């Protein structure tokens, strides 16, 4: 787990280009006693092999595998560039996290950063950060940028007899996950929900809310509220605007009259829809394959990027799950999501593909993994 302190942060830096920035960061790593002189060459070589830009104004320059022997102690040096640094391909970096890792500890850092990388508004907040504490709070995820919403906040096919029960269950989910207190639930059941059409309803409250979150409850049997059918209820607890992106995606579903896509979805599909992702139909068994990762240090930035690049060559929807991790499938064309799988040497990845070139995609991905994803 990445635990930063003020000594890790260097504010108000500037650099003519990314290579100048990397040299300065490498010097900070050296000055802190984390690496030996010469580690900078590994960092520059890594950047020449593949960009270390991750997204949302963040880059993670680090050394190559053959310079790990130059790492004395695992650690980081974070440089803040309020004016931004051109990292190539039109990408601008406001915070660069130089990593010195003796083994695969950097995978944990990457996994922790994925929540920050996937949230809206991070880039501007990093650019405008005024103190070490601001940057630490953002990178640690202490600043809520997205509403809490995961499988624990979804209850499918609850045998409700009326809207009060639906609201109580939806509020209870938010209470149980720490978003709100009992007073929130009591207030929520008194609120008049808004009908979004086709039996989909929306309700919310800001009473005694500690973290913004969203819950989803569907019914196992038909019930009604004010003469309208109730099939599902979306509830939100709000103490900031972190739920706005979910509400925007919900609005698109309603505007496009795609209620049934949401109402008939599995929990995993609901999570994807609320994030604005396309939901593919379940892949046929013939379009599922499992491959073992042979890379000695797992899927760090470079092999992860190579895997994503391979998946992007194909039109099909491709998802991947780490069978040695939490087993949840993610979009194989998203570097952030692939890195978040925390894949280490020997882990097995299950790929599923759906589309006109699904079989070719799986074969090509398998060949790329077998060849080492650019690491031989």
UniProtKB/TrEMBL annotation:
Localization in the cell: Cytoplasm
An annotated GO cellular component: plasma membrane
Keyword Cytoplasm: yes
Domain HPr: 286-376
GO BP annotations listed: phosphoenolpyruvate-dependent sugar phosphotransferase system
Keyword Phosphoprotein: yes
A GO term for molecular function: kinase activity
Domain PTS EIIA type-2: 2-142
Keywords: Cytoplasm, Kinase, Phosphoprotein, Phosphotransferase system, Sugar transport, Transferase, Transport
InterPro entries xrefs: HPr-like, HPr-like_sf, PTrfase/Anion_transptr, PTS_EIIA_type-2_dom, PTS_HPr_His_P_site, PTS_HPr_Ser_P_site, Sugar_PTS
Gene3D superfamilies: HPr-like (3.30.1340.10), Mannitol-specific EII, Chain A (3.40.930.10)
Alphabetical list of PANTHER family matching this protein: MANNITOL PERMEASE IIC COMPONENT, MULTIPHOSPHORYL TRANSFER PROTEIN
Role according to the record: The phosphoenolpyruvate-dependent sugar phosphotransferase system (sugar PTS), a major carbohydrate active transport system, catalyzes the phosphorylation of incoming sugar substrates concomitantly with their translocation across the cell membrane. The enzyme II FruAB PTS system is involved in fructose transport.
Protein name: Multiphosphoryl transfer protein
Species the sequence originates in: Vibrio parahaemolyticus
């Amino acid at each position: 787990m990445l635990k930063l302190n003020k000594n890790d942060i260097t504010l108000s830096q500037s650099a003519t280009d990314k290579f100048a920035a990397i040299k300065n960061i490498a010097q900070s790593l050296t000055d802190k006693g984390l690496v030996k002189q010469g580690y900078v060459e590994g960092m520059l070589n890594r950047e020449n092999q593949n960009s270390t830009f991750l997204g949302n104004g963040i880059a993670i320059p680090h050394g190559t595998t053959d310079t790990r022997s130059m790492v004395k102690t695992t650690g980081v040096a974070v440089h803040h560039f309020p004016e931004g640094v051109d990292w190539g391909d039109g990408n601008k970096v406001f915070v660069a996290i130089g990593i010195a890792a003796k083994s695969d500890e950097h995978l944990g850092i990457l996994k922790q950063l994925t929540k920050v990388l996937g949230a809206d508004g991070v880039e501007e907040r990093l650019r405008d950060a005024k103190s070490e504490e601001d940057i630490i709070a953002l990178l640690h995820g202490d600043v809520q940028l997205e509403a809490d919403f995961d499988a624990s906040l979804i209850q499918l096919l609850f045998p409700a007899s009326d809207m009060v029960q639906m609201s109580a269950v939806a509020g209870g989910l938010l209470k149980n996950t720490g978003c709100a207190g009992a007073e929130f639930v009591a207030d929520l059941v008194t609120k008049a929900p808004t009908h979004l059409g086709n039996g989909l309803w929306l309700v919310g409250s800001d009473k005694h809310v500690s973290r913004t979150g969203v819950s989803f409850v569907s019914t196992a049997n038909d019930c009604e509220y004010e003469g309208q059918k109730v099939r599902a209820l979306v509830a939100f607890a709000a103490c900031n605007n972190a739920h706005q992106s979910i509400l925007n995606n919900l609005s698109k579903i309603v505007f496009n009259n795609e209620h049934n896509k949401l109402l008939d979805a599995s929990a995993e599909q609901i999570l994807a829809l609320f994030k604005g992702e396309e939901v593919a139909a379940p892949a046929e068994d013939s379009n599922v394959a499992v491959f073992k990762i042979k890379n000695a240090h797992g899927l760090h930035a470079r092999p992860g990027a190579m895997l994503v690049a391979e998946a992007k060559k194909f039109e099909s929807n491709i998802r991947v799950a780490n069978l040695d991790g939490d087993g949840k499938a993610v979009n194989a064309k998203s570097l952030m999501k692939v890195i978040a799988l925390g894949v280490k040497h020997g882990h097995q990845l299950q790929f599923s593909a759906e589309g006109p070139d699904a079989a070719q995609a799986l074969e090509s991905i398998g060949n790329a993994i077998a060849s080492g994803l650019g690491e031989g």
